[in-house]
TrEMBL record:
Pfam families in UniProt: Peptidase_M20
Organism: marine sediment metagenome
A GO term for molecular function: hydrolase activity
UniProt protein name: Peptidase M20 dimerisation domain-containing protein
């Protein structure tokens, strides 16, 4: 019989915009300190930053343009929600300082073994994006 001498743990920790990166690192430092008690246990912690949370004003023009576009296409109000996900929007807002929003086809099969999106949702989302662009740029329809 053999007893493993090494273990590897990999995971994702997502957090809301109110948390700063130093706070996240502090949380992991506390966790590491709490488990590294046994003299023969050596914990090597490596934390890589990715997708820090972001928040923009609900009154931002891009938010209004998206909500109007959604209403025009779908005929319903688009609720304002937050999400613990990572995309390029995180970088665009936090690093470039450009107000942006995340909207898509839905996430019911996202990252599943069989990941797919039906054509109707692709068409709907495309129409919402196009209406959002028109609304955001203030282009008049003729």
């Amino acid at each position: 019989n053999r007893v493993p001498t090494r273990a590897f743990l990999n995971g994702i920790h997502r957090f809301w915009p109110a948390k700063e990166w130093r706070d996240v690192l502090g949380t992991f430092d506390e966790l590491q300190a709490s488990v590294q008690r046994h003299p023969s246990l050596d914990v090597d912690l490596r934390v890589f930053g990715n997708g820090l949370g972001f928040e923009i004003s609900p009154d931002a023009p891009i938010v209004a343009a998206l909500r109007k576009g959604y209403r025009q296409v779908v005929g319903q109000e688009l609720p304002l929600v937050g999400a613990l996900s990572v995309s390029d929007v995180n970088i665009i807002v936090r690093e470039a300082g450009i107000p942006a929003v995340a909207h898509g086809t839905g996430s019911t099969t996202a990252h599943a073994d069989l990941e797919w999106v039906d054509v109707a949702n692709i068409v709907r989302t495309t129409k919402v994006f196009l209406a959002t662009i028109v609304n955001y740029l203030g282009v008049e329809r003729r």
